[in-house]
From TrEMBL:
Keywords assigned by UniProt, alphabetized: 4Fe-4S, Iron, Iron-sulfur, Metal-binding, S-adenosyl-L-methionine
PANTHER family associated with the record: GLYCYL-RADICAL ENZYME ACTIVATING ENZYME YJJW-RELATED, PYRUVATE FORMATE-LYASE-ACTIVATING ENZYME
Alphabetical list of Pfam families matching this protein: Radical_SAM (PF04055)
Record CDD domains: Radical_SAM (cd01335)
Cofactor(s) needed for function: [4Fe-4S] cluster
Name the record gives this protein: Anaerobic ribonucleoside-triphosphate reductase activating protein
Domain of life: Bacteria
InterPro entries from the UniProt entry: Aldolase_TIM, NrdG2, Organic_radical-activating, rSAM, rSAM_sf
Length: 244
């Protein structure tokens, strides 16, 4: 699937072929449901979400190379079952597919956390049978997408959404990060109905943004203490909601 790279994509990937990883989380039982896993944090991102609390990963450079990461994974064979590729945004790394193939060859299951702005990369990973699970972040509805993410290419996200909703080979979870300064209850319902219309039948996960004086974000957001009506949302949503 051919596409023209945007200037933002080029900035995210420029000069970052090696080392690609900002850090490795050596152990998690939360980020890959049903599997004991580690997380490889890919440096760089093609979004600038206001609630992002990982600015050092988004705007920083990698410190861990491919061979170092593979050495870690080889030592953990038999102890870990899965590898989560997160970030930043892992799909901005040109070497992602080739590296995932090497991880697969070690016997690991792979989960990708993605913002969906690279449908061409996601299609390539699916075609290469390199993914076992995907978590797709639905950042905001169309009319708020640019405000929340710093980019206006909602159509590219929508192509990834359709691509993942229409396939039935791997498990997909769609999730949204909620902060009352950015998204209201009607925005959440709009996204839930959009997902349903596109054929998504999984659980729609809602997670509170981590923000405040001790957890700085790209948009310098305050702590979000305003409640939303989870009962109303569950009643009006066409999808099952998981509030975290």
């Amino acid at each position: 699937m051919a596409r023209c790279a945007t200037a933002q994509d080029e900035r995210a990937g420029a000069g970052r072929a090696t080392p690609p990883f900002h850090a490795i989380t050596p152990f998690t039982m939360l980020d890959y449901p049903g599997r004991i896993a580690c997380i490889l944090w890919v440096a760089g991102c093609n979004m600038r979400c206001l609630y992002c609390h990982n600015p050092q990963i988004v705007a920083g450079k990698g410190a861990i190379g491919e061979e170092q990461a593979l050495a870690f994974l080889r030592k953990r064979k038999g102890l870990l079952e899965g590898v989560v590729f997160s970030g930043g945004e892992a799909t901005t790394w040109p070497g992602l597919a080739a590296f995932m193939a090497r991880v697969k060859a070690l016997g690991y299951a792979i989960k990708l956390d993605t913002n969906g702005l690279r449908p061409d990369v996601i299609a390539r990973l699916l075609e290469g049978d390199l993914l076992d699970r995907v978590a797709l972040d639905y950042k905001a509805p169309l009319h708020k997408f640019r405000t929340v993410t710093g980019t206006s290419v909602f159509a590219r996200f929508a192509r990834s959404l359709d691509l993942l909703c229409w396939q039935h080979r791997i498990s997909v979870e769609v999730r949204s990060t909620i902060h009352a300064d950015l998204l209201g209850e009607e925005d959440i319902l709009e996204m839930a109905h959009d997902l349903s219309r596109r054929g998504y039948r999984g659980t729609y996960a809602l997670q509170r943004a981590v923000a405040g004086p001790d957890r700085p974000t790209l948009g310098d957001l305050p702590a979000d203490t305003r409640p939303f009506d989870a009962v109303r949302l569950a009643r009006l949503s066409p999808l099952e909601l998981a509030v975290r």
